[in-house]
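Objective 1b. Sequence-to-structure analysis of Prophage baseplate assembly protein V.
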Amino acid sequence: MMVENIGRLARRILLMLARGTITLVDDSKTVQSVQVRVNALELIPDVPRFAEYGYTSNPPAGTQAVLGAKNGDRNDVIVIATSNATYRLTGLATGEMAIHDDKGQSVYLSAGGIIIKGGGLPITLTDTPKIRAETPLLECTGDIVDNCDTTGRSMAADRVIYDGHDHDVRNVQGGGSTIRSDPPTAVE
């Protein structure tokens, strides 16, 4: 009897942790659930996947998962960690961290400063009344477009318009009079 109990306990301990591959993700609920293939015979559906507060992701199929089974019961399993070596950023120095996805987008907190990569996709800031940049230098390597969704003109094109225009000065008077020109108008 004692040997039988020890054997049962040993099996439960062996079943407490497992490694598998995510095959399907349901991200429609408050707690994400995944389907995980542990081996050729074991496919576990509807496994809750918990994440650290403030971080969320939808791991692609093929992502590795570490499973924890309460009391070694494979009917009471949660995903406690995930990793996908295909997309993992490498070469980070001690103390550095990054968030990233499978599209090449990332926010990298490097020892030399924060690096944001858009992966060739647009970066959109929304729902903010103000953007403030407290920096002595703001460098843009491309041409800045003012009111990009309306005029479509770059600041360089506007500068050519401004530098190349003049105004008639009406009612010129001699002596110490001060005459102001008309305000500039956009040249189409």
